[in-house]
Amino acid sequence: MELVVISGKGGTGKTTVVAALSQLAENRVKVDCDVDAPNLYLFYPGTDREQNDFFGGKTTEIKQELCIKCGKCETVCKFGAIKEGIIDSFVCEGCGACTLICPADAITLRDEKTADTFLTEIKNGIVSRATMEVGSDGSGKLVTQLRKNVKNFLKEDLISKENMLSLDKSIIIIDGSPGIGCSVIASITGSDAVLIVTEPTKSGLEDLKRVYELTEHFDTYVMVCINKYDINLDMTYEIEAYAKEKNIYLAGRIPFDKTVMEAINSLKPVTEFSESSAKRALEEMWNRIDTTLRNQN
Amino acid sequence: MKIAVLSGKGGTGKTTVSTNLALTLNIPYIDCDVEEPNGFIFLNPVLENEEEVFLQVPEIHKETCTLCGACVKACQFHALAKAGKEIVLFEKLCHDCGACKLVCEADAVTFRKRAIGKIQRGRTEKIQCERGILNIGEPMAVPIIKKLLASLPEETQFIDCPPGTSCNVVNSLRFADAAILVTEPSEFGLHDMKMAIELVKKYSIPYGVIINKDDQTENMVKKYCKESQTPLLGAVPYSREAAIIYSKGGMLCQESSYKKIFEEIAEKMKEVFRWN
Amino acid sequence: MKIVVSTTGKSSEDMLDKRFGRSEYFYIYDTETEQAVVLENEGAKAGGGAGIAAANQVIEEGVQVIITGNLGPNAFELVEKAGMKAYSCGVMPVDSAIELFQKGELSEINLPGMAHHGNH
């Protein structure tokens, strides 16, 4: 069973919630699909047991020895990526128009490495994650790959049959991508449930609406939690009213709590800290989520 | 001088910093975070005009098309496909590159305009504001960012960039003469800021860091700036009041204590960016 | 008649993959010759437009029936225009999925799922 945690807006505390829930769920398999800001792995120092190049896009190359400096490529490129026979790979979208027009056959289209993917072995489990090349975009293809890497790992029998059985019953928690684009769609596809982490601000509500509209297109169970709910109770009520209207399950409210920042900075889930209000709220929320999801199946 | 405001991590306060600095310095504000353009919530300008942004997408004319499939093969974005006796266009995947027309031997390709978003311009009492908006469900933000930035006058302005280090950010940075990196004093903030610095360095422009939600201690971001000799432009302290003002869509620089902080940041910024 | 099943592996015992555009393989079974071939899904390699690339591929293979989990609207449109039929099936071994189809126990996909309109 897969639970994906997403946020729409950045900075609402998604990764904090993921780390806490993973610990409460005794989750052994973690997938960090927040490829633009992959912070989950900072919580889990471990050894990389697998590293692979990921080719997520295309780019072009001009062979200078063949180039006759006719300048046709520069005129045909609608993205302004070619200047004086040099391609700016940050700007090039890999459309290949220049390769089609070049009379000297000096330009080739090739796959572009956009990320490294890792399977990192940690205490009691693994993390599937990626680091992007600067200026590259997270993509549905990369997110799909990260989720697939975990499945391949499980399939290859690298863990004992006994663990496999308990994994089947456990809930895999995925740190989803922010925003409403391609990568978040790939994070949600085929998951069983989605938890949206929002905050009681105007921007938070706007972005919650946008991302909820997106989830409506999937056959997945949607829940919401309001982080730092006590910063603005009026906005919290507004968000709750929206959730009620849309029939979104309100999984929990997490209070503003200084322990959360302390937890991030010591790189431990907040649930490992002794009693705090955020910890209690997260524990209650996990119990509700666990019960709800188990009743569904 | 165009000053790009970036943050590796989302939600660090990029919009807070750029809107407040724009008001403090009386400088135009340009919102390039076209997927989530929240700057106008805070500045609340009176809209003056609006302009649609278009892409050119192909039309394949059935009468002349020989169904040879060359355009389908040429399209790297899978925006064209052959099904039965027609070439089908998936316009949302089209990048407006023109490759299909280049390879069509039957001359069956022409182009038409397709709107993907808009640009809005307006004024607050003090400053000019512009923003790009990507229509919901549209995947490509870059054409709007380019349109927004390519036509800007030479005067000084703040460019509120998208978060992260994606190609949307790259396209915002291409037009910048200086960059501000907004971060928060956490391991996450620091980690993502380092990624953003890597990107900015490629452009050889002056840059500096602003810490938002600062805890007023000698925190890890301050240490990093000192050790790496990265200019620290200032810090906006965290307070519950600030969080409440933000949550309601209010401006921090209208509170006396915060007004002074933004003025100090502005001074420091002029020094670091050598701007008169 | 040629039937294609989106799948995670290369054999008929491997599991059906509910994703059409980004499944790893296509298991193509010919009911007349009772032979099967397995192809890598071109869609899985695509940065964007995975569903379109995948549909294009099976159209070119001359397939008439698709068995998968969901079809995105892009793939759905192509499949419809090419006059193919698509059937929805749960996760199970490929041979069981084909068997269910032949018994007429799978339902036809009449509505597309969510677009994966990624540009990358």
TrEMBL record, chain A:
The keyword ATP-binding does not apply. GO terms for molecular function: iron-sulfur cluster binding; metal ion binding. It comes from the Bacteria. Signal peptide: none annotated. Gene3D superfamilies: 3.30.70.20, P-loop containing nucleotide triphosphate hydrolases. Keywords: Iron, Iron-sulfur, Metal-binding. PROSITE patterns: 4FE4S_FER_1 (PS00198), 4FE4S_FER_2 (PS51379). Residues 58-82, 83-112 form the 4Fe-4S ferredoxin-type domain. This is MinD superfamily P-loop ATPase, contains an inserted ferredoxin domain.
UniProtKB/TrEMBL annotation, chain B:
GO terms for molecular function: iron-sulfur cluster binding; metal ion binding. SUPFAM superfamilies: P-loop containing nucleoside triphosphate hydrolases. The keyword Signal does not apply. Residues 56-85, 86-114 form the 4Fe-4S ferredoxin-type domain. Pfam families: CbiA (PF01656), Fer4 (PF00037). Keywords: Iron, Iron-sulfur, Metal-binding. It comes from the Bacteria. This is MinD superfamily P-loop ATPase, contains an inserted ferredoxin domain. It comes from Anaeromicropila populeti.
TrEMBL record, chain C:
CDD domains: MTH1175. InterPro entries: Di-Nase_FeMo-co_biosynth, DiNase_FeMo-co_biosyn_sf, MTH1175_dom. It holds the Pfam family Nitro_FeMo-Co. Residues 13-103 form the Dinitrogenase iron-molybdenum cofactor biosynthesis domain. It comes from the Bacteria. PANTHER family: DINITROGENASE IRON-MOLYBDENUM COFACTOR PROTEIN-RELATED, IRON-MOLYBDENUM PROTEIN. This is Predicted Fe-Mo cluster-binding protein, NifX family. The lineage of its organism: Bacteria, Bacillati, Bacillota, Clostridia, Lachnospirales.
